[in-house]
Amino acid sequence: MTTLKHALRTLKAANQALARSTPGSKGRQRARARLAKTHRKVVNTRRHLVHQASRALVDRCQVIVIEDLNVVGMVRNRHLSRSISDAAMGEFSRQLLYKARWHGVEVRVADRWFPSSKTCSGCGVVREDLDLSTRTYSCGTCGLVIDRDLNAAINLARWQPAGPSAVTLKEPTHALLLSTA
Predict the structure, then answer these.
(1) What's the CA gap between 14 and 96, in Å, rounded?
(2) Has this prediction a pTM greater than 0.90?
(3) Environment class of residue 170 by beta-carbon count within 10 Å: exposed (0-12), middle (13-18) or buried (19+)?
(4) Contact 106, 62 (CB under 8 A)
(5) Domain-embedded: residue 18
(6) Planar angle of CA 74, 101, 68, nearest 5 degrees
(7) Collapsing DSSP states into helix, strand and coil, what is residue 96?
(8) In the chain, how many domains are there?
(9) Three-class SS state of 5
């Protein structure tokens, strides 16, 4: 299985080869076919990686907590857009939901306004001045210094839904209800 970075480099080369070819030539037809084949490989690589990750989570966990993030807003950040798009968060959550349902795994969806990164996992104090470039969370109250992503993961693991009956995920499944009982 090729890695995604390798497939994207190959895609770039195939695009350049197509651009350099003479319109209407046999070489252009071959370059177009190579580009289509490379696009197919990139799509299949992304799909395979999402399937592997979602299956691994469902196999290892009884309860999975995911955040309902503003992906459209995150893609607007030109420094993060490729990474966010490659993560295929909508497809990942869709696959996670149906695989979790198959295997009886509970999926909780934290709403997008839950401050998972800004809340101290030690004492619960919320920092308002934490920007995206800060990769280490340090609490001024209890003195905890921890990686920002690990802090968010601990807070999400402790998160409980507000309503006892159902958790909804509005993207890509249009209000698919999951039982949290």
Answers:
(1) 33
(2) no
(3) exposed
(4) yes
(5) yes
(6) 20
(7) helix
(8) 1
(9) helix
Kindly state whether residue 131 falls inside one of the protein's structural domains: no
Report if residue 15 sits inside a domain.
yes
Per-residue confidence in pLDDT tens, the chain, 181 aa:
457 788 889 999 999 999 999 999 999 999 999 999 999 988 888 889 899 999 999 999 888 888 877 777 777 887 877 777 777 778 888 899 999 999 999 988 888 788 888 888 888 888 888 777 788 888 888 888 889 888 888 888 888 877 653 444 433 333 333 333 3
Any idea which residue has 């890695």 for tokens?
3
Q: Domain range holding 2?
A: 1-60
Q: With beta carbons less than 8 A apart as the criterion, state whether 97 and 107 touch.
A: yes
Q: Distance (Å, rounded) from C-alpha 23 to C-alpha 28? A: 6
141: in domain: no
pLDDT of residue 2: 56
**Category of 104 on φ-ψ map: left (φ > 0), alpha (ψ -120 to 50) or beta:** left
- Within 22-147, residue ranges assigned H as helices are 26-60, 71-75, 81-87, 89-103
